[in-house]
Specification:
The structure is a homodimer of 329-residue chains. Chain A is α/β, with parallel strands linked by helices. The first copy, chain A, folds into two domains: 2-133, CBS-domain (Roll); 188-327, SLC41 divalent cation transporters, integral membrane domain (Tetracycline Repressor, domain 2, Orthogonal Bundle), CATH 1.10.357. Chain A is 60% helix and 8% strand. The first copy, chain A, has twelve helices and seven strands. Chain A has helices at residues 34-41, 67-72, 96-105, 126-144, 154-159, 162-189, 191-196, 199-202, 204-227, 232-262, 265-295, 305-327; strands spanning 2-3, 26-28, 51-55, 61-66, 89-90, 111-114, 120-124. In chain A, the strands form two sheets. The first copy, chain A, has a four-stranded mixed β-sheet. A three-stranded mixed β-sheet of chain A has the order 5-6-7. The radius of gyration of chain A is 28 Å and the shape is elongated. Chains A and B meet through α1, α2, α3, α4 and α5 of A and α1, α2, α3, α4 and α5 of B.
Chain lengths: 329, 329
């Protein structure tokens, strides 16, 4: 029975599980009796006593015994009989959100940290896991909403001064401003079509909005799936099918409605085709962006919100005007 | 020393802290020694032994002692000397996300649950708090992305069948479809202006996008603030000032740029005025929606995402065409 004194935080890792490992935790051998472990814990100061790490002589983590199990066991039972022989573990390089999810999925409140060879490095206690999840939650929501990660702490972001709030918002808004001017240039390239049939202009906001909404749903699904440990591959196929299906539904509703309401079947056809194509592309694009960022080692949540919206919007405008060019003018 | 057997879950409460209270937890009196408490916990089965609830004779919770403190204390010390005399508590009616935030802010991993008179009802253990936070996180992200709450479990939502995914998405998309047709009708009401100056059409997507982006940032801030326990009142004033400031910046950038690039100062002026007005309104509208829903007892996150976007987009179109009518035609 000992208290581990290994420092698992070699470098200043801020985003990995290593940051949160507690080093003053109880450690015991598999053959120690529950009584002896509990006795020896008396009078000692632990950062976390939620569970005892059970290690072999070479320091390998072979199990974890929660305080509840130690208390419930009869006194002379060796701890190996009550320990979880496959405790949830992470390495110092594990992403902190992934670590927290792993604990929840295992119904455990503490996680063991081991190095590449299985040697015990420390425990991540429940209060740290809670803090990690809150911070990650906040960051995801912030990115979806168009803030940079630096303003990710909800309480401070909500109450910070007017100038700081301007500063935290401007980066994405400037990207948006560039997108807005690009959108004007794209519409401008189809000026002739607009002059020939002004009705085309009526449906630009609607097509842009609907394709954007489909993409936003997909990107949300991808971010949530990634956080929960579901690979994008498992999401991709179904989303790729869902996009065209939604597009077909949009087309089937909008074509007759616009034909009846505006008496222009060719414009109605252009809207229907644009919605079909744009929705089909929206789900694929929405998956490609977080996937690419994930591959590059960046937070996939960056691929949502403003950036995805700008790209999606510009693409929808192009698709709609191409459809209008082909079908109307 | 006893194990509490009170069942705090009278009715099928699903969103409140009561759902998560653990009932088989150690309870002791303030004058009990740490040694005695630890001795009496031996051989008993607890759902959560992270902390011991310290209760007066009438059942009132007067403190909480974590396992770490009990172990560190000298044997005969009465627990009242090592307990936290103001433990973080919630009532059964407390919102579960609020309860989880409270635990994190206090640096505690377990929360005491008490009734209106301070009588101890149970403990919410750390693994439940973790699960609550994950579920809430997931739900917020889902709503921001345009899903209904019923599809809120990330793992299942990410892998569910194509038909179920269509079903979970359609409600908001149908709202969006209605919005798209309404947008067409609004643009149609300004057909004369478009025929007079086709350049007006070029900037519709950009104005809609930028005002929407400003509103999305505010709504994100409001949701995050509410989750962290910051009232909308504290956010409102600064946001109400931030909106016009962003609008002024947009106006100062777009007016010269559009004038130079498209050689139409009157259209440039209409875009600049529209961005100023729409941005100013965007932050106020973005706060009013979650605030109203919060007042009605609904999740403020519903006021974000698709609904807010549709309303914001329609309003931006109206503002832009009114500005164009006044300044261009």
């Amino acid at each position: 029975m000992s208290t581990t004194a290994v420092d698992p935080v070699g470098e200043a890792a801020t985003r990995t599980a290593a940051t949160h490992a507690s080093v003053a935790v109880p450690v015991a051998a598999p053959h120690d009796s529950c009584r002896r472990i509990l006795d020896e814990m008396r009078g000692r100061t632990f950062e976390c006593a939620a569970a005892v790490a059970i290690c072999a002589a070479d320091g390998t983590l072979v199990g974890m015994a929660t305080m509840e199990r130690l208390l419930a066991a009869a006194g002379d039972t060796p701890v190996r009989d009550v320990m979880d022989p496959e405790p949830p573990t992470v390495t110092p390089a594990t992403d902190q959100e992934e670590a927290a999810w792993r604990a929840v999925r295992r119904g455990e409140s503490a996680l063991g940290m081991v190095d590449g060879t299985g040697r015990f490095l420390g425990l991540i206690p429940p209060d740290r896991l809670l803090a990690v999840l809150l911070a990650e939650h906040d960051e995801d929501v912030a990115r979806l909403g168009g803030f940079l990660g630096s303003s990710a702490v909800a309480r401070s972001a909500a109450t910070e001064s007017v100038w700081r709030r301007l500063w935290h918002r401007l980066p994405w808004l400037l990207v948006g401003l560039g997108g807005a001017l690009l959108a004007a240039a794209i519409v401008g390239a189809f000026e002739h079509q607009l002059r020939t049939q002004v009705l085309i202009a009526f449906f630009v906001p609607g097509v842009v909005y609907l394709a954007g909404a489909v993409g936003a749903q997909t990107v949300t699904l991808a971010i949530r799936g990634l956080a929960a440990g579901v690979g994008i591959g498992r999401i991709a196929f179904r989303e790729a099918v869902t996009g065209p299906l939604l597009g077909v539904m949009f087309a089937l509703v909008t074509f007759p409605l616009i034909t009846v309401l505006w008496d222009e079947p060719r414009v109605a056809a252009a809207v229907a085709v644009a919605l079909l194509v744009a929705s089909s592309i929206a789900t694929v694009l929405a998956l490609a962006l977080p996937w690419t960022l994930d591959r590059l080692g960046l937070d996939p949540a960056f691929g949502s919100g403003p950036l995805a919206t700008v790209i999606q919007d510009l693409l929808s405008i192009v698709i709609y005007f191409l459809a209008a060019t082909a079908l109307v003018t």
